[in-house]
Amino acid sequence: MPRITAERRAANRSQIVAAARRCFSRDGFHQTSMPDIAAEAGVSVGAPYRYFASKEEIILEIAGDAFRVMFAPVERLVDVAGDMTVADLIAAAIDPVSGDLAVDGAGQAIPVDELLRCAVQAWGELLRHPGLRQQAEAGFEHVRGRIADALRNGQRTGSVPAELDPDRGARVVMALLHGFVLQYTAFGLDDIAGFTHDVRVVLNDAGLLRGHR
């Protein structure tokens, strides 16, 4: 049998991940089995095990994709902007999930709705899955640290109030983002532009904006 090429292996792996994401989004993590994933992908029952040791490993990858889609734009903004506000950070995270498609870690276009449904389920898994919790906590602390750095930069330029504690402020930003995802996914929030506008209005009333943008 000819050896499978790296390109074909990557394509097969992406096919299985996409099938798992559809199953998880539709039926939930616990109601989905590895045979279900294989059937959705149109491959043999044993094929997923050539790429993943377990269903939990697939969950980890999909959850990682979901959080990466939201927070990678925030990190890019931190790298290039020097006078951002709290609302700028929130808008940067909301923007990539405001359309129908996003891009996963492998560069494949994926439905935003599927990805966010998996993200919401992944939060529940944190309470029972040490591996997922460890990965999520590490990712959370990394992004929170970057946001705190951005808030410190904003304080130096005057776009963020000096009295705001950057570390606690970063947690507020993260809480707003997580709340947005939950409302968007579970409760039908569809006016994303309006949400972003109102974030700016509310934060301005709270004194967290300095009139920028």
Compact description:
This protein is an all-alpha fold and 213 residues long.
Structure explained in plain terms:
Helices cover 67% and strands 3% of the residues. It has 213 residues and is mainly alpha-helical. It has a two-stranded antiparallel ribbon with strand order 1-2. Helix 1 packs across helix 2 (34-41) and helix 3 (55-80) packs across helix 5.
Write the layout of secondary structure elements.
Layout lengths: L5 H22 L6 H8 L13 H26 L5 H9 L6 E3 L5 E3 H14 L4 H28 L8 H21 L5 H14 L8
Antiparallel strand pairs: 1-2
Helix pairs in contact: 1-2, 1-5, 3-4, 3-5, 3-6, 4-7, 4-8, 5-7, 6-7
If you average the pLDDT, what whole number results?
A: 85
Name the shape in a single word: elongated
Provide the low-confidence segments as ranges: none
Q: Quaternary state, please?
A: single chain
Give the spatial strand order of the biggest sheet. 1-2
Radius of gyration: 19 Å
Structure characteristics:
single chain, 213 residues, mainly alpha, two-stranded antiparallel sheet, elongated
